[in-house]
């Protein structure tokens, strides 16, 4: 369907959510942003990824709400303006990304029935219980009657393949040989993955579709890594997906069989794998052509006319291409503050921001770690308070323990590169958001003299005459860096003032540490979604699913049934976006409400209480 011509609109002002009614890679030359969808690490790297937080498990509602009391709002990160003049309405966000899981079958060439025949049904039952932590003994012993190396190898391989997460060893007891299976998680002695035979005619990478609920991409990768006993950097993907959504995306992993991956479906919670195939290449950030979204906004207050006006504006005009709240973290210490300290070369402040005690609820062991650091400044003592050493705090403390507090730059380098760059990219992002808000405030939705457009990958300053032949959809704004130019109107000059206020020199964006030198990039200020459609649904149960998920379809579960004349109303909308744009910012334009987790948590808490 051809897109409609843009209609004249007024620039909307920021309207906060009533509380009581009364994550740009530094590069040699600037580029157009196209790296990934949701603000995670800028590209795959040889470094190992960190786990998203310093602990496993989900927060309960009350704890999460307490954490969010000290979280960021849109105002804190420069998200201030709207493009349309329709009246906003309230609602609760639920979103999912669309990529179909069609099957969970292993490719035929790989199925090896003889391998599964070496285990009896009783042994399989015992191993399955062990895999799910239901075996109180902590291990399963299988006696090898026909004791040959080939038979033992077959049993070892069958257990590891059919029951991912289990490790095996051979033991001799009273002259009899046993293969002992035990849970690999936490067993440091056998942490290094072993090499397995890999056919030469098979692609080196197993590609699969990952379906996940309530986990972000890096959390999910870390779970898979733990079960498969791999380093997380063995996985590749084209973009990061949000935690608080149902998402589906393609993943590739180096030399892990589809059969091993398929067996993970037996023991994973809120994660499912399918659509396995072998290819000769990994996935790369930047290859993503875009994302299709299905978004459900529950308990909407808007009339049908308001919904129609809002979605028509989104389809015809679009939304401001702000970096969404995912880019800036959810704790009381925003990632952009750490990034600013890195760019200032103020390493003591970097350590302080990451490790100091902070307001808001956190997991108890993390609170104890921070308190220990504040009291003793002893990295080893603080590190002992963390059961999970792979979080950012743990990696930094380990670095300080190894290299000392006088070598903070080296110690900080123990944090994987992607995560370190996330800090400075979030600083760039908040600058971009702020300057785009000023640009919209000053000139509205028309191209003006001094604006920038791209000619190929090169930015060009518009003359007054040229501005007449361009629209707002052509205009780009730069992320600050040493290899970009800035608009020549007064808003462009504001970049220098903003960075100066943060004690940074816009003319010197190269850093003593090469990784932290910022080349900059260009980003379109308005995005028009494609494939926009919507419907209003009525229902009674606020907890019922309003979308038939891919996994439910795969398991032949019936579609959700709800009362079409129910007391609640929901907006179900679909649209497609290019890479490096945020669905939450499109939703924000529709609702005209703050999309931060802090504000949405307040809405959820109010509704369900």
What does this protein look like?
This protein is of the alpha+beta class and 609 residues long. It has five domains: 71-97 and 291-324 and 527-608, no CATH class; 122-191, 2-Layer Sandwich (Ribosomal Protein S8, Chain: A, domain 1), CATH 3.30.1370; 205-279, Alpha-Beta Plaits; 356-415, no CATH class; 420-524, TruD, catalytic domain (Pseudouridine synthase). Helix content is 31%, strand content 18%. The chain has helices at 61-68, 113-117, 121-131, 149-162, 217-228, 258-263, 304-316, 335-343, 347-355, 364-376, 379-383, 392-403, 408-412, 417-443, 464-467, 490-501, 550-554, 583-591, 597-608; strands spanning 31-32, 92-97, 139-143, 166-173, 176-183, 205-213, 235-237, 246-254, 271-279, 291-298, 319-320, 452-455, 458-461, 475-479, 521-524, 526-527, 530-539, 568-577. A five-stranded mixed sheet has the order 1-15-14-12-13. Strand 4 (166-173) and strand 5 form a beta hairpin. Helix 1 (61-68) packs across helix 19 (597-608), helix 8 packs antiparallel against helix 9 and helix 8 (335-343) crosses helix 14 (417-443). Mean pLDDT is 79; it is low at 1-29, 34-65, 95-99, 109-113, 186-195 and 605-609. InterPro entries: PsdUridine_synth_cat_dom_sf (IPR020103), PsdUridine_synth_TruD (IPR001656), PsdUridine_synth_TruD_CS (IPR020119), PsdUridine_synth_TruD_insert (IPR011760), TruD_catalytic (IPR042214). It catalyses: uridine(13) in tRNA = pseudouridine(13) in tRNA; a uridine in tRNA = a pseudouridine in tRNA; a uridine in mRNA = a pseudouridine in mRNA. Interacts with SIRT1. One of its GO terms (molecular function) is RNA binding. Residues 318-528 form the TRUD domain.
